[in-house]
Amino acid sequence: MTAEAYGRFYNGIYRPLVSAFHGRLIDARTIQDEQRAYAIERAEFMRPFMSNAARGTLLDIGGSTGVVAAHVAKEFGLRGTLIDPAPLEVEQAQRLGLETVTGLVEEHDFGRRRFDVVIICQTVDHLLDVAGTLTRVRQLLSDKGLLFIDIVDFRAAYLRNWSIEDAIKIDHPYYLTEQTMAAYLRRSGFDVLRSDYAADHLHVSYMCRPGVAEVDAVPGAASVDELLREVRFVQNAPRA
């Protein structure tokens, strides 16, 4: 899809499609309890890096209803801005007192603004251009800024389900592993300060700072070969 078409997808198709896929209502209201628990856990992951320097501004990319951005902003004394392509979810974020932008970070012109903290929560798997978005984030981050980002680890997902098909999500253009995400970050000019699994043992979180781009960074060949062998093994394993 083009960026314009992707914006339309999140405007009116995304939540009904995901609701139908999971067989339950998932919308801008029903997801907020889940987002609150997530926000509390991930803020604790961020805390050791937030307490050592004065930071003023926060940008939440793909921030949905604003629950996470509002919690992080309150915990660390930040002025929060949220950008998301879904108008109904942006409307919920406005009620929390956040500055909001309806759109895609790849398309929106922030002018000369820079942010001290950027968070990309449960979003990177949804992006049309992971490398392009991370490069854009690197431009938006202040010199001593911090990036928080997390992924659904595809390897953890297919091992949990012992199925490649059951690890697929209808709204994810990309499926990332620890090694591929680390390579994306290095290529885009980020140094990883910490990475760890969330309590669900499925999401991997990264805390990063600006660094020197390693434009040729890729996952190691041995780790790629091992992953592909494991994928083939899981794919061909007998089912009970």
Question: How would you describe this structure to a colleague?
Answer:
This protein has eight helices and seven strands. The chain has a seven-stranded mixed beta sheet with strand order 3-2-1-4-5-7-6, sandwiched between helices. It has a single domain (3-236), classed as Vaccinia Virus protein VP39 (Rossmann fold, 3-Layer(aba) Sandwich), CATH 3.40.50. The chain is an alpha/beta fold and 240 residues long. The longest helix is centred in the first third of the chain and has 20 residues, at 3-22. α2 packs parallel to α3.
Keywords:
240 residues, alpha/beta, Rossmann fold, single chain, 7-stranded mixed sheet
Chain-wise SSE layout:
Layout: H1 3-22, H2 32-50, E1 57-61, H3 67-76, E2 79-84, H4 87-94, E3 99-102, E4 115-120, H5 130-140, E5 141-152, H6 154-161, H7 178-187, E6 190-197, E7 203-210, H8 221-236
Parallel strand pairs: 1-2, 1-4, 2-3, 4-5
Antiparallel strand pairs: 5-7, 6-7
Helix pairs in contact: 2-3
